[in-house]
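Q: A reviewer asked whether we had any structural model of the full assembly, not just the individual parts. We don't, so I'm hoping you can provide one. Inputs are below.
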Amino acid sequence: MCNECSEMNERIDRLKGKLIVSCQALPHEPLHSSFIMGRMALAAAEGGAYGIRANTKEDILEIRSQVDLPIIGIVKRGYEKSNVYITPTMREVEELAEAGPEIIAADATGAVRPGGVALSEFFCQVKKKYPRQLLMADCSTVEEALYADRLGFDFIGTTMVGYTPQSRGDRIEGNDFEIIKRILDKAKHRVIAEGNIDTPEKAVRVLELGVFSVVVGSIITRPQIITRRFTDAIEGIELENFNIKQG
Amino acid sequence: MCNECSEMNERIDRLKGKLIVSCQALPHEPLHSSFIMGRMALAAAEGGAYGIRANTKEDILEIRSQVDLPIIGIVKRGYEKSNVYITPTMREVEELAEAGPEIIAADATGAVRPGGVALSEFFCQVKKKYPRQLLMADCSTVEEALYADRLGFDFIGTTMVGYTPQSRGDRIEGNDFEIIKRILDKAKHRVIAEGNIDTPEKAVRVLELGVFSVVVGSIITRPQIITRRFTDAIEGIELENFNIKQG
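A: Here is a predicted structure for the entire assembly that you could use as a starting point for your response.
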C-alpha cells in the first residue's frame, strides 16, 4: 500500500465508533451559506465530532478551511425523469472530486438515474475514473444495502430508509434497528448508520449493534427543525390549561 | 395609552404561552457572527418561535433585518471588580437603545455592579432615561426574583439559576420547577422561564405552571453543545463492547 493510501486509511479508521455530523443547508433553508456550514463544521468538531458530511463542492472547500476532519461529500441535484437526487450522475462526482472529500456518497436505492443509467453502471463509471475514491451507498432497504455491498461500495449507509416508495413507513429505529441488524448480518463492507438518528441514545445503540460510524444531522445543524420540536410540543397543549400570569 | 404603546403591548402579548429562542454566539464560539445570528433567528422563526433573545446591538440590528419578532436584548460585557456581565451598566443600555429591542434584560442577581452601583440605582437610571423601555430581570434565586419584582421590572427571568454562588447546585427543574413555582406564587409581574430548558417537555411544563413565556437557547442554537451531548454519550460506552464491522 502506498503512503497516500495508508494515510487515507488512518484518517478513515479514526471514524470507527465515532460521530459524523452532517452540515447541510439547501438553498431554501435559512442557514444556506458555505460560510455558515464551515462554522457549523467547526462547532461540530469542537463538540467532539470525528467526521463531517456535506453537500456541494463549495461547502466542502469552506469546511476544509475550518476543520481537519474526514468528509463524506455529496451533491444534491434534481433531474427530470429521475427521483435520484444524491450525487445522481458523473457530473456531481466530478464536481466533488475537485474538492476531494475522503468519501463520496451517492444514492443507491435502485431508482433509475438520469439518462436511464443503472446503479451498477454508475458505480463502474466512478471506479473507472476515480479508482481510489472511497464510495458510500445511500440505501433505503436491506436488499439495496446488500446489492450495493456486492457491487463493492466501501461503505453501506441507511440514509434513505423511509424516503423511498419501497421503504415508505419504515423507520430506522423500528424493532430495535432491525434493518441495521439485518444489513450488518450479511454485508461485507462497513456500515454507516444515517437517517433519523435524533437522540444520543439512538446513536449509542447503533454503535453497540456494530455499525462503523453514525451520522447525525438535522437535530444538531438545522435549528428550524429543533425549534419545531419545541413549538410542536407547546402547540400540543391547550392554552386554556395554562395559568399564565399577566403581570 | 398612546398608539405606540398599544402596538408594543400587542407585540409583547403575542409572546404569551410561546417560545423565545436565544440566538447568541460569544467571540470565542464557532458561530460568532452577526450574519449567522440573523440566519439563526430566521431559522427559529421558521420553526415557530415567537420571540428572539440576542446579545449586542450589532446582532440585534442584523436579526431585525431578518425577522419581525419581539427581541429581548442584552449586552454581555465583563468589568473588573464585578461579577455582573449581562447588561451591567448604562453604557450597555445605551448601546441597546440604539437597536431598540422590545425588552432589555439585565443581571438582577444582587451582585455589585461595576462602579459599586446597586441594582436599585441601576434600575432607576434606566427608567429615568428610558421611561417606556420594558425591562427583564435575570435572577438566580427566588429572593432576587421577588426583589426585582418589587423594584418594578416588567419581566422576571430565571436566567441565572445555578450560575451564581448563592444558587450553586440549584437546578431550574429541581423538585418539579419549585423555584419557578415559588416565584409565580408571589411575583406581580410576568415571569419568563430561562436557563437549562433543554427539552420540549421542560418547555411545556414551565408553561403549564404559568410562566408567561419560555426562552430556549443552546440546545437549539449552539451546535457544539448539541454535538457534545452525542459524543459524551458515545464516549460513555466501552468501545470493546462494540462489534464493529471492519469491512
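A: Points you may want to mention in the reply: Chain A touches chain B through 67 residues (CB under 8 Å). Strands of chain A lie at 18-23, 51-55, 71-74, 103-107, 134-138, 155-157, 190-194, 213-216.
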